[in-house]
Amino acid sequence: MVNKLSPWERILIARHPKRPTFTDFLNELFDNFLELHGDRLFGDDPAIIAGFGSFENESVVIIGQEKGKSIQEKMKRNFGMPHPEGYRKALRVMKLAEKFSLPVISFIDTAGAYPGIGAEERGQAWAIANNLKEMSLLETPIIVVVLSEGGSGGALGIGVGDYIMILENAYYSVISPEGCASILFRDSSKAPEAAEALKITSEDLLKLGLVDEIIPEPNGGAHEDFLGTVENLRKALSRVLKKYKNKETRVLLEERWIKLRSYGRFVEEEEK
């Protein structure tokens, strides 16, 4: 059974080569998608896809990280690791969503933001930090879905939202298990131990209050029954969008602020 899998086994499913990527969900869930390109500063980043579309006859803005499938597409998409222009493009499209009062649906699937020298020279850290600030203040609903990997700031750069969903076998973490094991244990082969300690599975994240809902997957993962997984996600998106669609902006921002401030609490044991 899926719920008997270890955290490391969950991560292996999240990274399965046949696991659906963002474009698979985009094609099944949305109609009339119109992609927008470029950040108006440097160029276009194929690792992030952003644009307008419709969900159940309602106009929405859709943003997602795409890893690609074939070797050629993976290279084109930079294996889903965005550059700063990708985050700036995402923010540009989110600002359009705010202007036209459209909800934003953001899909996360990245091992992390691209750590190359060029990306750093073009302001990778600033682009992510600016997105965190702007998304926290965006005057329109933001729904976030973690599809497979949610790696560090690379995920957070499009991950601030009013409601966070995660697929059952996806994970969300400040660092990969391999990176954590290399730092703490000086041995990347201890990644399964790190995965256990990091508490990065969907169930752990729900208990910690870092996500709001788990989207069920079939035994073996989403690639075993993609359309069933899509239907589960469709029902959840429909329900949540109806809840947030007509919420007053002042209330929306206040609740988002409370939600963000609740992250990272220190819990002290009561004195005996």
From TrEMBL:
<dbReference type="GO" id="GO:0009317">
    <property type="term" value="C:acetyl-CoA carboxylase complex"/>
</dbReference>
<keyword id="KW-0436">Ligase</keyword>
<dbReference type="GO" id="GO:2001295">
    <property type="term" value="P:malonyl-CoA biosynthetic process"/>
</dbReference>
<keyword id="KW-0443">Lipid metabolism</keyword>
<comment type="subunit">
    <text>Acetyl-CoA carboxylase is a heterohexamer composed of biotin carboxyl carrier protein (AccB), biotin carboxylase (AccC) and two subunits each of ACCase subunit alpha (AccA) and ACCase subunit beta (AccD).</text>
</comment>
<keyword id="KW-0444">Lipid biosynthesis</keyword>
<dbReference type="GO" id="GO:0005524">
    <property type="term" value="F:ATP binding"/>
</dbReference>
<keyword id="KW-0067">ATP-binding</keyword>
<dbReference type="Pfam" id="PF03255">
    <property type="entry name" value="ACCA"/>
</dbReference>
<comment type="pathway">
    <text>Lipid metabolism; malonyl-CoA biosynthesis; malonyl-CoA from acetyl-CoA: step 1/1.</text>
</comment>
<keyword id="KW-0547">Nucleotide-binding</keyword>
<dbReference type="InterPro" id="IPR001095">
    <property type="entry name" value="Acetyl_CoA_COase_a_su"/>
</dbReference>
<dbReference type="GO" id="GO:0016743">
    <property type="term" value="F:carboxyl- or carbamoyltransferase activity"/>
</dbReference>
<dbReference type="GO" id="GO:0003989">
    <property type="term" value="F:acetyl-CoA carboxylase activity"/>
</dbReference>
<dbReference type="GO" id="GO:0006633">
    <property type="term" value="P:fatty acid biosynthetic process"/>
</dbReference>
<keyword id="KW-0963">Cytoplasm</keyword>
<dbReference type="InterPro" id="IPR029045">
    <property type="entry name" value="ClpP/crotonase-like_dom_sf"/>
</dbReference>
<dbReference type="InterPro" id="IPR011763">
    <property type="entry name" value="COA_CT_C"/>
</dbReference>
<protein>
    <recommendedName>
        <fullName>Acetyl-coenzyme A carboxylase carboxyl transferase subunit alpha</fullName>
        <ecNumber>2.1.3.15</ecNumber>
    </recommendedName>
</protein>
<keyword id="KW-0276">Fatty acid metabolism</keyword>
<keyword id="KW-0275">Fatty acid biosynthesis</keyword>
<keyword id="KW-0808">Transferase</keyword>
<feature type="domain" description="CoA carboxyltransferase C-terminal">
    <location>
        <begin position="1"/>
        <end position="243"/>
    </location>
</feature>
<comment type="similarity">
    <text>Belongs to the AccA family.</text>
</comment>
<comment type="function">
    <text>Component of the acetyl coenzyme A carboxylase (ACC) complex. First, biotin carboxylase catalyzes the carboxylation of biotin on its carrier protein (BCCP) and then the CO(2) group is transferred by the carboxyltransferase to acetyl-CoA to form malonyl-CoA.</text>
</comment>
